Amino acid sequence: MMSFDEIMGRQDVPVVAGDEQGNITWVNDAFVEAFGWPQEEVVGGSIVSIMPAYMHDAHTLGFSRFLTMSAGRVLDQPLDLPVRHRSGRESRATHLIVAERCSGQWRFAATIVPSDWPAGGGSDATDR
Amino acid sequence: MQPTGSPSAQPTGPSPEAAGAAMLRQLRGTLGRLEIALGSISDAIAWTSADEMIEWSNDVFDRLVGKPRIQTLGHRISAVLVLEANGGPVPAQSHPVRLALLDGKETSGIYGLAGTARQLEILARPVDFGSGEAHAIVTIRDCTARQELAHSRLLSIALQATIDAVVITDPQGLVWWVNDAFVTLAGYAREEIYGQGLSILRSGQTPPETYQGLWETILAARPWVGRLVNRRKDGTCYVEKQSITPVLGADGQITHFVAIKQDITQQERIAQDLRVKEQAIASTQEGIVIASATEPDQPIVYVNPAFERITGYSADEVLGTNCRLLQGPETDPEASRKLREALAQGLPCTVEFANHRKDGSPFWNHLSVAAVRDGKGSPSHFIGIQSDFTERRRAEQEIAAARDREVQIASRIQQDLLIGPRLRSWPGLSLGTLTIPSQEVAGDFYDLIEQEDGVLDVVVGDVMGKGVPASLLGATAKTKILRALLGLQRGPQAEAPPEPSAIVAAVHRAMVPELIALECAITLCYARIDIRQGRLRCVDCGHTSVIHYRRIEDRCVQLKGENLPLGFVEHADYGEVEAALGIGDILLFYSDGLTEARRGDWDFFGEDRLETAVRTYADLPPDALIASIRQDIVQFSGTDRFTDDFTCVAVRIGEHASASGLAHEVFETVSDLDALAAVRTAVRTFCSEIPGQPVPAGRLDHVEIGVNEAVTNIIRHAYQGRPGQPITLDFHATAEEVRIVLLDFGQPFSPESVAQPVFDGTRDGGFGVYIIRQCFDEVEYQRDGQGRNRLVLKLSLPPPVETPQPPGTAAS
Amino acid sequence: MPLTITVENGIAFVEANLDALDASNVQAFKSGMSPVIAEHAKVVLDFTHVRFVDSSGLGAILSSMRQLNGKGGDLKICSVSKSVRALFELVRFHRILDLLNTREEAVLAFGQ
Description:
- The complex is a heterotrimer.
- Chain A is of the alpha+beta class.
- Chain A has 4 helices and 5 strands; from the N terminus they run H-E-E-H-H-H-E-E-E.
- A 5-stranded antiparallel sheet of chain A has the order 2-1-5-4-3.
- Chain B has 5 domains: 32-148, Beta-Lactamase (2-Layer Sandwich), CATH 3.30.450; 162-269, 2-Layer Sandwich (Beta-Lactamase), CATH 3.30.450.20; 284-388, Beta-Lactamase (2-Layer Sandwich); 421-463 and 507-655, PPM-type phosphatase domain (Phosphatase 2c, domain 1), CATH 3.60.40.10; 677-796, Heat Shock Protein 90 (2-Layer Sandwich).
- Chain B has 22 helices and 35 strands.
């Protein structure tokens, strides 16, 4: 079980962090490399921007449910979900999402490891 | 931003970001509640993109499809929610969601969830969320239970309606439900049986082991089938075939027993019936063969043991073949044809014909065939019943042959007794006789016995009892009479002929043992005509009366006596009746064949008519008188075939206009070829014994030949070969001629009708008439007034040889 | 049918041991002659004992003769009595058939 800080400290795999509003607050370099999103384009925007369209409603409702119930069904477990690259390409990646409360608000962090992510790291050259 | 002078103008509301965040929080709260709410309903909900991709589904949906949302999002709903309809998979293009998206309108239906037994009521609705593209919202309600309910309602109705009785019991066997058929079968109303055990149906005729086995089986949760004899409420018993199926609950425990009962009483009775009939067929002595009427060439499908025994073929050897294998060269083709035709038309038929056994030996088969028809009336099978009557036939043939032989012998005996000159010309009397037997051998008899000059005994009699023994008795009666006479005349003292009554008594004594043993009796009239005394004495023993025509008075009287027929009693006395005779009187002796000739049912010719006839024909010569009477009777009864023997003797007192003749004989014979020899003898005898001028030898041959031919023609043509019919030959010789008259009662036969003979040897017929003409100087045929053929053959005799003249007297 | 059959030198002699051949026994005569005709071509009827023949007897004799002729054979009659001859002459039979006095004459007649 990874903690929020542990995930935030990882450089070997793509990491994304978000807030209670559902916005992306930070992505690491591996994320930029893996999925082609420059930081300035995703940070501050909704988390759904890195999801395929058909995931949006499910995310929204599920996220809302979580905030209401303070209990979720997607946390702390590896999930095989699709990710949308900047290029529009979809690929599947293993997500591991954690959440913690900080200063009365929730904050989220997730590792998103594409299925073809090499063990030692790599980049999505086509996204450049 | 512009600070103003007002020291208290501080912004108090939230900042725009804070307002946005608060709104977002509120929205999220609502959404969360909505999501939870949607997750709590009992129906499944999902919605898809315009491409059917699942964009969201609730928990019920996820449970329904058996996959978490994570795995189904973004997939086509038709691949996730796999449906079945009408027993087969619903293809993607028929998926209700696609249909709704394509048609743009709501689609609903009940589908089965593939891989499960669940029934789903699915409603798919296309909705535009405002983006311009339609999405599909799908709600699914599990209606399995409802379907099951409808289904079970159907089943329940079926159970109710079935003709078999259905009982559902609890695990202890107490009745929970019965259908109407059960009520009808067992006779118990529902309220009487619910909650009861089915043992109230026990009749006591089912072995206890059956019930033990039953309970052991069903309590072990296994189905049971068996036969029980049960008793209805009204006490009558019936046979049932019962099957019991245990019903298990989800936990594997028995919750109910379902029993189906079939009343097989009738079935068993029919089966037993069939067994009895089969046994009967198998054990009968008659051969039974069943052939198919529908298959080609009517193959045999069954034969019983008797058939095997009669024909020598085993069942295996004949099954599948046609019955004609029993027929052979000796089989009458006519009978075969009759059989074939009847079978072709499906009609019943009985034939008797020769068949062959397997070993080739023939036997007489009495075969009756009938068709069995199917429900539509067409023949389905033929049943043949056959019996071997060879033995019976042989016996019948032997009996028939024996009877023929007997009759032949008896006939010969009678003929032998008839053959021989019967009548002579009696001075003072003229006679006529006629006998026509009704069967080949007659029971009637008559005899004429010359006692002395001027005394003639006439005997007529009839044997009561028919057939060969009777007629033989008749034949021997005459011999007995003669012997009795002989016996009575033995003494040298006896000069006068014995009395008629004494003669009859003697005959009776001689015959009574035989008569009683054979249970026959003889009626007899023994009459003595005494010309010199002009007296008739008559011993009448139960015979018909004698009709006496008295010329002086021109009327008839009947003479009757009172004696019993011979053979009735062991000892009897015989009385006589007498009558005076005048010239021209006629006496008619006859048998009851004349008076009992019938017309219709109740009309008999009778004595009155006979008397009238005698009177009518009184001026005719006796033979013509009798012939006329015969004709009258033939006319009366409408046939010339008499049912009873016809015997008649007519005596006329005083000579009929007699020609000056040298010799006169009347000879009566019968239409049998065997009598020809005697006829020839009679001819030779008469012709060679004519006093003074016997017929010379050369001509005698011709006369013999000629008369022989004439009589042969009468037998063959006039009487058409019928034996026993009377033929009269009347021989009369004068100085100038010999005249032979042949009289018969047959078909009119004219010699002219016979074809001329041919002499070159190419034809061997037609000589008879030619010969007759060659043999006689005159041949004359006519049909006389009394219905007789009359052929007159005349032979002119040469004038007497002249005595030689003395020399000198020459005649030129 | 009392017929005595003897065969000599290829000729069958049929002696009729009957008093008369008339309508009453002509069928039996025919039946008796039938095997003889079948087996022989030269047949002599010996009528020594026959005292009388009528037209049916004639017919039977004629029929036998025709059958034998048909086979290339012949029928002769011998020892015919006066009365029988009288009949034969009446129907001119003697012109169709040889009537001989004795068996020997009949044999000779066949020789010709």
